[in-house]
Amino acid sequence: MSITNDSTVAEVLEEYGKVTRSHLTDWLPQGEPQDYLYGPLADYPLRGGRMFRPSLCIATGRMFGADINELLPAAVSIELLHNALLIHDDIADESEERRGQPTLHKQIGTPLALNAGDSLAFLSLRPLIKANSVAGSAMVLRMLEEFDQMAQQTAEGQALDLGWRRDNHIELREEDYLTMVLKKTCWLTTLFPIRLGALIGSGGRANLDSLFNFAFFLGAAFQIQDDVLNLVGDHERYGKELAGDLLEGKRTLMLVNLLEISSPEERIKIKSILDAPRETRSKDSVRWLQDAMTDRGCIQYAKELAHGLAGAASHEFEKVFSELPDSPDKTFLSKLPAWVIERS
Amino acid sequence: MTEQAWQRPTLERTKPRRQLAANISLTGSRKFKKASQTMSGAAKGAQLGYEVSEEQMKEGKAQARFHDIPGAASDLFGAGFSDFTGPMRPENFLALSERLMKDALLWVEFVARSVQWQMPGKNSEDPEGSATPASTKNTAQDSDGFITEVSSLRPVEVTFQPQPGAESKTLGVRDLQAIEPDSPAIAGIKVTREANQWRLKIHVSESQPPGLYTGIVYDAEDGAIRGSLAVAVQGS
Amino acid sequence: MGIKPTRVAIIGGGCSAMATAFDLTRPELEGRYQITIYQQGFRLGGKGASGRGPGNRIEEHGLHIFMGFYENAFRLIRECYRELDRPADSRFADWDDVFKPDRLTGVKDDHHDGTASHWLTWFPPGAGTPGDPDAPPRMFSVKEYMARGFQLLEATLLSARRDEFLDAKEDNPDATGPNATPMEQISRILRLGQLGSIAVAVEAVHAARLIAESPTLVAFPMLTKVVDLLSEFVTRRVHALVSRDTEMKRLFELIDLTLTAMRGSLQDGLISHPDGFDAISDLDWREWLKKHGATELTLNSSFLDTLYNIAFSYEEGDMSRPNAGAGEALRCAVRAFLTYRGSFFYKMQTGMGDAVFAPFYEVLHKRGVRFEFFHRLRDLHLSPEESQRVPHIEAMHFDVQANFKSGNEYQPLVDVDGVPCWPSEPLWDQLVDGGQSKKSGVDFESHWDSTVVTSLKLEAGVDFDAVVLAVGLGEIPFVAGELLERFPHWRAMTENVKTVATKALQIWVSEDIEALGWRDDSVNLTGIPGPFETWADMTHLIAHESFPVEPKSLAYFCSSLITPDELPAQDDFEYKASYESAIVVDSQRYLNENIATVWPNAVDEQGFQWHLLVDPTGSSHSDPESSLRSQFVRVNLNPTDRYVLFTAGSGKYRISPLDYDVSNMTVAGDWTDAGLNVGCVEAAIMSGRVAAHAISTYPALEDIPGFDHP
Fold first, then answer.
1. CB contacts, 8 Å: B181 with chain C
2. Which pLDDT score is estimated for B95?
3. Which of B62, B95, B116 is the last residue of a domain?
4. Which residue of A has its CA nearest to B35?
5. What's the rounded Cα separation, in Å, for the pair C192 and C232?
6. Rounded distance between C-alpha atoms, residue A171 and residue C105, angstroms
7. Of C355, C415, C371, C412, nearest in space to C77 by CA
8. CATH pick for C6-50+355-497+650-703 out of 2.20.25.10, 3.40.50.10240, 3.50.50.60, 3.30.465.10
9. Which end of chain B has fewer beta carbons closer than 10 Å to its terminal beta carbon, N or C?
10. pTM score of the predicted model
11. CB–CB of B65 and C210 under 8 A?
C-alpha cells in the first residue's frame, strides 16, 4: 500500500479507511427484509467516519509483519461492531444527529433501529469466523476470545456510565472515571484493534498484555479530547451536537473535576441540574455548567491530563515497540499520541 | 387564610436497591479538594493512567484464569510464544461463541434499560403527587391505578414505570429478558389502559426460572419508548 | 434567603430522632428546617438513655455495645464530636476517647457431663475505622459476600491443619498443576467424588472463591456442588473427632454454618433475587439452616444460641421459643463478620447517655434545635378520610408534665468531673413544685405515671409543618390510635412486629475478676444459664464514677423478661414495683446459684458472698436483700422501652419512613423498614437518616451505607 514514513496521520487513516470500507460492503447482506433491516443496517457503516479503529488494527498488524489481506477481516469486524454500538449509543443518548445527518432511530424508529444495531453487532463476528479458511481455527478461536473479553469490558464500562447517570451519582473520583473510560471506550477503540493486529501479525507469539498501557493511555487521551471538543470544538468538523454531553449529563473528566473542586452548595446545585430529566434541563443551566467548567479551569485541566496520558502513551510505545523494524506503520503509530490530543 | 399545607417531597424511589447491578458502582471518596493542584495536570494524567492500569492488571490476573476455557485456543499458544499448532475442539468453539452471543445480549439489555432510566417517569396524573412508582404483587390493585393480571404458579412482583404521556398511547412490550444467559424470555405481555387505570396481563410459565426479567414498553405507533417493565419471578 | 423554614416536630429523643435532627440541620441545608424535639420526662436517649445515680454511678437502660459495622452510627457520632470541638485535654475530647476497640468475645458451652467451657475468640482488626467521614465503606453484593466467605473458609481450613487431619497421601496425585484454571481445578475435584484431604479442600475453596469473584454468573452452578463436597468433608471429619476435641468441634460448627449459609444462598437464588436477604425472612434462622442441610450439631451449637441471645430473639422473652427471621439474621451476620472496620466490637467508656446523647444534645442545641422536655405525646389527629386523598396530621395533643421556674428553658445536664452527663432523676430545682414532686415519687418516664400540669394542642400549619414520629414501637398503639384505625397495614404492623421487655442488673464488686475466678481477659460472655444469660465486664467505667470506696470490678447483666400479654391499666402503680421485687429475688438466686460458673471464687457453701458488693454511699449491709438493693436493678416495662424483635415473617409488616401514608408525617426507629431491620443502634440511626430523606430528600439514599444492600 502506498503509505510512507512521511505520510501524515490523516493520510494513513484515509488510505486504510478506504481499503476497509471497500471490503466492508462485502459483508453487508443484501436481500429481504431490505427496508426494515439491511438498508438501515448499512446506513452508519457507509456514512463514512474517521476509520480510526480499523486503521489501528491494520497498522499494528503490518508493523508486526502481516499482509494487509490477513488483517482486513479483523478491521472490518471492528468497524462493524463500532457502528453497531453507535446505533445503540445514539438511542441511549437520544441524539438527533450523527455526522451531519439524522440518527438511525430518528429515521426508522427505535425498535427497528435497536434490531438493526443488534444485527450489526452479531454480524461483526462473521468476518472473524469466516477467516477460518485463511487463518486456521486456532487463530480464529483466539480472535474470538479477544472479542469476548472486549465485549464484556465494553458492557461493564457502558453499565458504569449509564448507571451513574441513572442514579445521578456524583461521588466520582478521577480514578473511577478513568476506569470507566478504559472499559467503555479503550477496549473497543484501541485495545482490541491493537491486540488483534499484534495477534495476527505475530502469529500469536506476541505478549498482548505488554501492549496494554500503550493502548489504554492512547485511548484515554483520545476520549478526553473527544469530551473537550464536545464542549469547545468546531461543530461542523466535530460531527456531533455541541455541548451534547452536558445535555446528556455524561460524566466527563471535566464534570468530575468540577464536582471535586466545587463547594458543597455548588455540588447541590450541579446535582440538581443533572437530576432534572433531559427535556427539562434548561439552556441556562447547561450554559452555567459550561461556564463553570471554563472559569474554574476544568477544561484546561482535562486538556493537561490528556496531555499527560498521551505522553505516557509515547513512553510506552518506545518501551514496547523499539525492537520492531522501522516502517511507515511504525511511524504512523508513533505519531498517534500527539495526534489524538492535537486534533480538533 | 388557607395556605397550601406542607407536603412531603416526591421521592425518586422508596425501596432499597438490593440487586447485583446496583452494586457495580464504585464508591468515591468525598474529598472536597481545593482547585490548586500540587501536581501539574500532565503529570497527574500519567500517574492516574499507571494507577488505573495496575489496578486493572491485578483484577485481570485474578479473572484471566477464569476467562480461560479448558481446551481453549490460548492453551495452544501457551504463554504466547509457542507455535501455531494443535487440534481444533469443536465443542469449545461452540460454547465460546454461545458465550459471546450472550455477552452481546447482556450489553444490549443494558442499553435498552438505560433508555427508560434516563427519564424517570413521574406519575403526573396523581393529584397528590405521590411518589412511588407503581409496584404491586400479583393481582393487587394499587392506589396509583395499576392492575396486574398475572397468571403464574409462583409469586411474582411487577414493577411498571410508564412515562408521563404514555396513557394516551397504544403500547407494546418487548420480551422481558433476564440477566442470566440461560433463562428464557417472558413474552406475550399486554399493557392496556382502561377506565383511567393501567392493566397488565402477564403470563409466567411453570418452568420459568426465578430471576428478574426486564424490558421496554414502547409506543406501537411510532416506536418511541414509553416506559419499562420488570417482573421478578421468585424461587419456589 | 427569604424562604420560611419548614417546621419539623420530632417526637421522641432516641437514636433515630437524633439522626433525623442531625441530618436535617446540616450546614449544607442552610437552615431550611427548624426542628423541635418533644421528649417525655427529663432526658434524651430512648432505649439508650442513661443516668448518674449515687456515687455518680452510671445507670444504664441495658447493655449497649457498638459493632464495627455501624457505619451510620459512627459516622454521625464522629461528625458530632468534631463539631463539638471539645478542648484536647478533656476527658472525652473525641469519639475515640469514648469508643474503644473491644476484640474479645465469648460463648459459653454447657457439656452433657455437667462441666462447662468457654469459647473465646479474638477478632482481627478490620481496615480503617467505622464511620470514617473521609473514607466511605465499600458495601458488597451477595456474590461478593460469598467470595469473602470462601476466603475466610480458606483461612480457617489452613489454620486447622492438624496432624490428625492429614491423610497419608498428602502429596496428592490428583492435585492440579499450577496453571490450571479454577474451573479446571473444580472439574477435577468434582470428578474425585469426594475431598480426600484438607489440602484438596483448601484447593476447592480457593477455586470456589475465584469463581465467586469472577464478574459473570456463568460458573455459579458449580459452586453448589463444591459447597456440598465441602460440607460432606466437614461432617466426616467432625464425626471422627467430636468426643475428642471440643475446639475442633466448634471450628467445624462454624465452618458448617458458613457452608450451609452459602448453600442456602445459592439454592434460594439470593445472588440475583431483587429482595436480597429479605427473600428468606419468613423462615426462622434455624429453620432455614436446617432446610439447607445444617448438621444437628450446628443447629444445637452454642454459637447459634449466642446469635439469638444477643438480639433477645425469643418470643415474649420465653427462652424455649427462639425466633429470628432468617433474612435479617443472615444480613446482620454478614455485616457483622465481613464488613467491620476497625474492631469487631467497640465499648463505650462511659454511659451511653453521656457518650452519645449529651454530645448530640449540645451540638443540636447550638445549631438551633429546640428541645421541649416533659412533653408526652397523647395522640395524633388525622384529617378526615377522603377518597383518593392522602390524609395529613391536623393536630397533636401533648401532656405537659412539668413547668419550669421563671419560665426558663430546662437545662437537662449535670457536670460530673468535667463531663456533661444526664442525671438519673429530673433536676427538681428547676421545676415548679419540684420538691413536692420529688417527695411524692413522681416518675416522669413511667407509662403508669399520669402527672400533668397542662394539656397542649399543636396545629398543622400554625405550630408545625412536618412530623417525625420517633417513639418506641411499644408506644405506637397508645399515641397513634387514629392511624391504626385508618390504615390496616399499621394495625398489622403493631400485631406482627413484636417487642419484648428486658431486665438489667449492675453490680459493683470489691474484688477484681481474676480474684473472682475468671481466668481470661476482660470479656463479654453470653450463654450463662439462669435469669441473666449475658454478662459484660464493665470495670473500665469505674474510673468515671465517684464511689467513696472504689470497687475493683463492675459487671453488667441483662436478659429479656417475660411479661403478660395484656399491659396493666395505666393506674396500676404496683405493676412496676412488683416486677422490681421479682427481679431482685431473681438476681439473688442468680448470684447464689449461677454466677459460680464464671466467678467460682465469689461463691462458697452458703452461696454468694454478699459482702463483695459495694454500696455507692459507702454503707455496709448485713443481709442479701438490702445488699442487692444497693446495686442497680432495672426493669424495662414501659411500652416505649421494649426491645424490638425480628421474628420470622414479621419483616414484611414493617413500615418504611419512605412510605407515603400521611402527607406531612414520617416515622423513624429501629422498628421501621429502613435497610437493616434489626433492633440495634445502627438500624435506628439509619432509620433516622432515611426519615430525614423522606422529609427533605437529603441525605441521598445512596449515601446511607447499608441501605442499598442485599
1. 218
2. 40
3. B116
4. A261
5. 13
6. 37
7. C355
8. 3.50.50.60
9. N
10. 0.60
11. yes
